[in-house]
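User: Please predict the structure of the protein below. I'd like the answer in C-alpha cell form so I can feed it into my own downstream comparison script.

Assistant: Understood. Taking the following sequence of 239 residues as input:
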Amino acid sequence: MSGFVSFVGSGPGDPELLTLKAVDRLQKADAILFDDLSSGPILSHAREDADLVGVGKRAGRPSPKQDHVSRLLVDYARNGARVVRLKSGDGGMFGRLEEELVALRAAEIGYEIIPGIPSACAAAAAAGIPLTRRLTARRVQFVTGHDISGKLPSDLNLAALADPMATTVVFMGKRTFPLLVEALHEHGLPLDTPALLAQSVSTPGQSLQRTTMGALADQLASEIGTAPALILYGPLADG
C-alpha cells in the first residue's frame, strides 16, 4: 500500500494567505512535515490525530539533514499515509523541493505540488510597492544570499545583480549582505540605491525598514537579529 505526498506552499506566514487547496490538504493529512516558518496558526488546520513533524532548517541552528527529511516522506507514504510537506512561501523557490521530489520518484510514490504565495510578493505588497514598473524596472530577479556552507555564493552573476534597472530580492541574505553590497558597488551599483529590509512578513512581528544599500550593509555588519528576512533593492524599494 502506498500513500501520497502533497507539497504545500504555506505562503509567508499569515494563515489567511493559504490557498483553499492548501487548507483542504492540511485537513485531510495523516502526517504533516513542516518548516519552522510554516508552524503556528497554519497548523490549526491539521486534524487532531495527525502526526506533526518539524523538519525546518534555520541558519545557525541545529537542523535535520535533507536525506532524513526525504526518508521520512518516503516512509510515511509507504505506510499508506496522506502526507503534507508544508513549506514556507512557495516550495519551489529556495525550498529544497527538488531533492524531495527525486526521493519520491525513486520510491515510485505519487505526489502533487500546490504553490504558495512567495514571500517576495508578500513583502512588496506589505510595503505598498510593485515589483515591476514601466521604464525603470522591467525585470525582477530572486537570489539566495548564502550557499550550503552559509557563505556568500562565489558564482553569483554580479553584473546582473548590479543592474540598476532590475528589482532584486535577496533570500536568506542578512549575514552575507555586507559582502554582497561591497561586490555590487565594485560593479557600479551606487551605495545610495534604495533598499528594503522586510522581516517576519505577514506575521504579527512584521517589520519593514526603508533604507539604502550602504546603510543597510553597515547595520547588518553589526547586528542581524534572528527574524526571517528578505532584502529588496533597486528602483522600487523606496516606494
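That's the full C-alpha cell string. The first helix runs from residue 20 to 28.
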